[in-house]
Structures are given as C-alpha cells and as structure tokens.
C-alpha cells in the first residue's frame, strides 16, 4: 500500500462514522473472469457494477480496504464540471467541443444522484450548492465571466455571482465575492463508496480486499498476479489512481500523487453561523482551502501546502493554522479527527482516461473525482461494450506524461508547484 498506509485513514471522521460493511476475503488461488478490476474506489466499483449489470463476470481486487484510498478520504465536495472552467475549455477546444466536454462532465452529477437513489445509499447527501470564494478582486472579475460563459455557451443557468456582502452571508469569512453553483453539494464519500460496493456485490461482483495487484501480464490474454493467486480475464480496468504501485508505468507516468490533509472539529454549537448556506466551499488560492459542515455539525477543513506524498508528522498541527486563518472565530476549538489522502493530478489537470488493448484505465481527476470517478468507471464499461462516443471525448484529453521520467518527475513537479504557490502569495 506504500504511502496509503501512513495517512491515518483509520483515525478519519469518515472511518469513525462509516456504515457497517462486510470484509471481503483475500484472493487465494487462480480464478477466471470476463473483467478484472484493480482498485476498490469509486472508479473501480462503478466499472465493476456497470459491467456486472451488463452480464459480465467481474472480480475486483483491492490492496487494502474498500474506499480507503482517495474515494473515501476526500473532502466530499460534489462539484460540477472539470478542473478547467468554461472559459479555459472554450479557449483550448472551441465552443462546440468545450460544450460537449462540459455536458459529459455534468452528466456525472446526475449519475451519482441516480446511484444514491437507486441503491438507497445513505451518505449524508446535501444538495446545498458549491461556493468558490474569491480572495482577490481579479478572481471575482474572472468568476463573473465564468458565470456568463456557463449561461451563454454551456446552456448552464445554475451558477451566479455573489457580491462580497452576499458571500459573507453564505460563509462567515471575508472574501471579495463568490461563484455559486446551485447544483453543487456534499456527501460522506466513504459511505457513498461503501454503498457502491454493496450494489456491486448484489449485482454479482466478487470483491477481494487485502489483495494488491503485483503484476499485469498481457501474454496470451490478461493475467493479474496477486500475493496468493491470480485472475485471468478478457478485460482489465486499472483504477488504482495514486496507488497503482508499478502495475503499468506508462499509465502511471501521466499522474503525480499529491497529499492533501483534512481535519474535523468537535461538533460546533455555532455551525450554522460558520457556513449559513451549508454549501461546500473552496477558495481561489492556487493551494486551495476547502471546507464544509458534516451532518453532525463539525467543520471539515482541508488545506495547506504539501507537494509530495509524504505526510507531515502532525496532520492536525499542519492544517489548523489554515483553518484558523480562514475562521479566526474557531481559534482553539478542539479538533477530533485529522487524516490525509493521496490524490493524483495530471499535467493538464484533465482526467487521464483511455485504453491499451483490453486494458482500460481512468485516474488523475485532479481534485474533481468525487463525482467524475463514478462517471469514468461507467465510460470504461461503455467502451468495453463497443459504445465509444462518450469515452472518446475524455480519451481525447490525453494529458502528457510528467517530464523527467520516474526519477525526476517528483522533484520537477515540486519546483513548479513552489513557483505557482509563491506567485499565489504575491498575488494575494
């Protein structure tokens, strides 16, 4: 599991409040399947579920426990779209292709809501909107243009600009204004992931936890080796994101694992005064602060600059200054939970979705994976079944590999991030 085992998932708010879930036995021996899925997060589970619903025999391998990667660690913010906003999409691809990409990304929102309803997943869903708060006047002006582009080019009328005064009514921290998307929201991501796993098992998927994939052999068909067995299959899905650990170096070269860290305060009697809107909130800094309220009135706050997967020695001490800078009124409040999560980013910040023969993959959501991952898993199965039109849209994004190969991509990336962070501090 590598870095994944050192990020205190067992001490997370999500693990403490997780729905009951069965443990799945490790794989022992060799088995045959139509599809082998590597990774028990939302991408892999969505692919497994949708494949099983099409009649495929599916075996899913998870190196640790279901949902204990990025899918069950993250901020739980449901954000419509891609990491690049509508103006950048139009500048990069023109109006027609930009709208097609936005529409496809938007469909993830509807898919996740459908999954929650159809499979009765109890995950503290709150459809209260998403705020991106401007820390500079320039960011506020940019947001106004984004709202206009969404309405006129993307035919998306659900976003609006908030003044500084209106933003303060929505979240009790001073900003220059805010971009509000009424269709955003938040949820308990681990319980959502566990709900997908339950649905997958009910559809016939066999899940093996504690079963890391050690080697992918394509000679004479697909064979995935594990410590005590192997799976032979016609198709494979690689859905390990930042935790693929050497399974496919070409795929892994497109992503960079980055650590982010979250704390959960004690239950707050004044929670409704901290975020009166109960929206999911992030800000416009290059190193983003993001936060929301939990179902039991805690502030879940993620933030801080960390450009390598190695966690800080004390996650609580690392995040607290960023929380108290945003909300001085919470200075000294007790923090009950502190944990970390690896997310993967790509050079373009677009997801890396594609195939190599009968090996399909999707990862690199760059902070947008809460709902995009479920869609990506479904797109892989569509492509596997010969329905390639939606898959091809994301496949065409194809981020470039990180420069420097396996030895230098980390140090080069850190240098680049430090430069952007310095520019961010000078700007604000």
Automatic annotation (TrEMBL):
Q: Does the keyword Oxidoreductase apply?
A: yes
The Rhodanese domain covers which part of the protein? 32-77
Q: Which domain of life is it from?
A: Bacteria
Keyword Oxidoreductase part of the UniProt annotation: yes
Keywords, sorted A to Z: Oxidoreductase
Q: Which PROSITE patterns does UniProt cross-reference here?
A: RHODANESE_3
Q: Which SUPFAM superfamilies match?
A: FAD/NAD(P)-binding domain
Q: Which InterPro entries match?
A: FAD-dep_OxRdtase, FAD/NAD-bd_sf, Rhodanese-like_dom
PANTHER family, from UniProt? FAD DEPENDENT OXIDOREDUCTASE DOMAIN-CONTAINING PROTEIN, SARCOSINE DEHYDROGENASE-RELATED
- Protein name, please? FAD-binding oxidoreductase
Organism annotation:
Mesorhizobium retamae
């Amino acid at each position: 599991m590598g870095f994944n085992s050192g990020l205190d998932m067992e001490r997370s708010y999500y693990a403490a409040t997780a729905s009951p879930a069965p443990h799945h036995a490790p794989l022992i021996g060799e088995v045959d399947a139509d599809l082998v899925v590597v990774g028990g997060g939302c991408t892999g589970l969505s692919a497994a579920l949708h494949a099983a619903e099409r009649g495929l025999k599916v075996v899913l391998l998870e190196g640790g426990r279901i949902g204990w990667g990025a899918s069950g660690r993250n901020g739980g913010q449901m954000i419509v779209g891609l990491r690049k906003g509508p103006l950048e999409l139009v500048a990069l691809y023109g109006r027609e292709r930009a709208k097609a990409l936005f529409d496809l990304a938007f469909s993830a929102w509807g898919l996740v809501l459908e999954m929650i309803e159809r499979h009765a997943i109890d995950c503290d869903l709150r459809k209260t909107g998403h705020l991106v708060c401007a820390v500079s006047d320039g960011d506020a002006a940019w947001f106004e243009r984004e709202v206009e582009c969404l309405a006129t080019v993307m035919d998306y009328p659900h976003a609006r600009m908030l003044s500084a005064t209106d933003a303060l009514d929505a979240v009790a921290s001073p900003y220059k204004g805010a971009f509000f998307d009424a269709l955003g929201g938040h949820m308990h991501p681990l319980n959502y992931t566990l709900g997908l796993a339950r649905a997958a098992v009910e559809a016939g998927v066999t899940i093996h936890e504690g079963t890391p994939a050690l080697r992918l052999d394509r000679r004479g068909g697909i064979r995935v080796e594990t410590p005590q067995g192997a799976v032979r299959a016609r198709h494979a899905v690689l859905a390990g994101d930042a935790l693929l650990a050497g399974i496919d170096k070409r795929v892994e070269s497109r992503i960079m694992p980055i650590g982010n860290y979250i704390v959960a305060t004690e239950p707050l009697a004044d929670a409704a005064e901290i975020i009166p809107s109960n929206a999911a909130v992030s800000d416009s800094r290059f190193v983003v602060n993001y936060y929301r309220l939990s179902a039991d009135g805690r502030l879940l706050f993620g933030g801080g600059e960390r450009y390598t997967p190695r966690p800080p020695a004390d996650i609580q001490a690392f995040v607290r200054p960023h929380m108290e800078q945003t909300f001085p009124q919470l200075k000294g409040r007790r923090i009950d939970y502190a944990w970390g999560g690896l997310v993967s980013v790509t050079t373009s910040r677009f997801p890396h979705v594609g195939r190599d023969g009968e090996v399909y993959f999707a990862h690199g959501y760059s902070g947008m994976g809460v709902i995009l991952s479920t869609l990506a898993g479904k797109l892989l199965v569509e492509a596997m079944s010969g329905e390639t039109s939606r898959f091809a849209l994301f496949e065409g994004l194809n981020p470039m590999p990180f420069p420097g190969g396996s030895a230098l991509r980390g140090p080069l990336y850190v240098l680049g991030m430090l430069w952007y962070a310095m520019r961010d501090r000078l700007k604000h």
